[in-house]
Design a protein that fits this description.
The protein is an alpha+beta fold. The protein contains five helices and five strands, in the order βααααββαββ. A three-stranded antiparallel sheet has the order 1-5-4. It has a two-stranded antiparallel ribbon with strand order 2-3. α1 crosses α4 (39-56). The longest helix is centred in the middle third of the chain and has 18 residues, at 39-56.
Length: 118
């Protein structure tokens, strides 16, 4: 399954200007917040989490919340994605990958996931 999301970076600029780190904590864990360098990074992370929920086919909600989707970076700075054990098990997820890009006023993320074969 594949999910994609597009976010206008100004949306995150306004969120950060109004709420600061408290705004980020609505959708990012403390470890994820440490990776955010600016509003463009935050927009990319939002897009990645939304794209993941779309790939799962459930959206953000009771089945999979923002904090069930875990973002990190590899040693070279490339984004990595994982899920909480609860969500991984419920959706039988075997493998996930993410790509995040920025262009002008937009951040775009694509998430691909593989389910265990029954």
């Amino acid at each position: 399954m594949i999910g994609i999301d597009l976010v206008k970076t100004q949306r995150m600029e306004r969120l950060l200007g109004r709420f600061g780190e408290r705004g980020l904590s609505r959708f990012l864990s403390p470890d994820e917040i440490l990776l955010v360098k600016n509003h463009r990074n935050a927009a990319g992370f939002w897009a990645a989490k939304e794209a993941c929920a779309k790939a799962l086919g459930c959206g953000i909600g009771a089945e999979c919340g923002f904090h069930d989707i875990i973002l990190s970076k590899n040693p070279k700075g490339a984004p990595l994605i994982d899920l909480s054990e609860r969500v991984k098990t419920a959706f039988a997820i075997e493998n996930l990958s993410v790509s995040i890009t920025h262009d002008g006023d937009y951040a775009i993320a694509v998430v691909a996931l593989e389910r265990h074969r029954a």
